[in-house]
Queue: 4 jobs
Job 1
Amino acid sequence: MEDKIKDALCDMYDIKRQSELHKFGKLPKDNEGTSTSILDCINSVICFLEKLDYPELSTDDLSNQVLTKIKKWLKDEVKEHQDCSDAYENGEEPIMSDHSDEICVGRHEVCVSLLYYIGYWEKEVK
């Protein structure tokens, strides 16, 4: 079955190239006044076949991977700017030599807030 999916994908990639080369991909898929083009249909079939051939790349899985990376980056930013944020909140002298502490504090606040809302939205969805 996998070979048939790979063959079908190769055929669809070839058809897509020809549709772009000969400009028939921009034509409507039917004569019923649809705005969907032949190329839209080709891309839809390719997407479907790719999901069959590479199920590990499902949209949900990719979204989870991206969200995990976003949360990791946000947590790293919180840690990086924690000292500046603490010093600013306690009225201490600026930590940054270029006096960009307020920027660091703003980044810290945004990252903390985003982490809070992501957690809230995740609970809301479940």
Job 2
Amino acid sequence: MPQTLIFVPTTRHVVGGITKSYAHEPLRNIRRGGAANHIPRRPDAPSATAAEPAAQGHGFSVLLPEYRGYGRSGGTPTQAAVVSDFVAFYDRLRGNPAVDASHIYFHGRSLGGAVACAVALERRPRALILESTFTSVRQLARERDVPSFLVADSFDSEAAIAGSTLPVLLIHGRQDTIVPVQHAVTLASALPNHTLLLLSCGHNDCPLPASEILQFLDTAGR
């Protein structure tokens, strides 16, 4: 299973990532993790992402960028910095002759979904998969009686993708107490081309619906 470390230099820091190739096919998929997930320190270590089983044997390879301030990456993970870093990763991926640039998908979980939405504003993917993703950090704060003006980085997923014609698969747990399921319902209502998949689970215990994801990617990739 070929694996490659990638480092993208920024103004003052270096942000790392790993590409993982599972089949002799063009690289076609970007995976964006959540805040609690980080890339293992060795490229041959077990992966932190649950997307890999769905990728293995189906012609997809995965790029896992690391947030600033996590793992091997330096810096502070502000919204502007993280989005800028991920755009740089996208541009580097798209410039790789082994990549099918017309079939790059964004897949994010929780905070990673918000990052994917923000990057999709600047670099349009083929399709978008959002797992347990919130409408915005400010909305989460309001639900916890925290004044929204205290939120420095809003990560407003709803504003980023509202009205987008991108194919979007939303996956969410009905019993999620961290990001309530209403966030997924609200995001779905803002998207004309969405599939909403609700599962009987919480925020961190949802099984990856691999068959549904692969079916979605197959449909979106036609």
Job 3
Amino acid sequence: MQGHALEKVIRILIVEDEVITRFALEEALRDLGMIVAAYQDAESALLHLETATFDAAIIDVALPGLRGDEFANKCLQRYPDMALVLVTGVDAQQGSRRRAPGDRVATLEKPFEFAVLRDCLKQLGLAVPDAPVLAST
């Protein structure tokens, strides 16, 4: 048996109030072998952040209650190395901020193809596989 270097499993937090979008993202990311926690609001996700860490978060900007951009700022205060993808229904060019060198924040405009999100996570420095991970038997 050949030895393979163990790759770190990527932990992703999803904060999305639209049920269908949240479930679709959760399923697609799990198929890529990631550990996923998904919440419909920022307040619930913040509670989870007290006991768990994540490599990245995918955050809907227009959340009820605590807005997604406010939640993202709280994430960065606690975990400055966390990669963040802010998802918005408005023109991403209008609402996006300038990225500084080493910045791990990106903005995607809805609707988007999953391949675009996967590429975005890669650009933020995550080792995201191109194809679903098949379980070995």
Job 4
Amino acid sequence: MLTITIDQLISLKACESATDLFLAEFGRRLEIPDYTPQHQEYLIRSEWRKYLGWAWQQNVLPQWSLSEANLRGADLRGADLRGADLRWANLREANLRGADLSEADLRWANLSWANLREANLRGAYTTTAVPGWDLVDGRLQCAEVPRG
């Protein structure tokens, strides 16, 4: 059983927008008998995407692998996917604008036509080049822009 309470979120110093959303959607308590990868995929595709990385880091939610997930065309704007396992994931045409993908494993992920504007890819693992980013030892680093 997964139980999350508003008091728990406040004690972990969740931001006000997250606690407001929690209260509006679930009230003071949320109980999920069996938290599955399908629940996580729902959260990724919802407004909750902005808070997932924080929830994983604070152990509020377990982090399921997203390896081979089909997120083609998904609206993932502003998603907090820090450290997510996205190996082999289909992110084709996904809107990842402003998403935090730092330290994410993107090896063999399909990023064709994905919107990566303003996305944080620092330290992400990948096997393919991403425009505006240099691939150094299998990890992405922001490309140096020549000044002049």
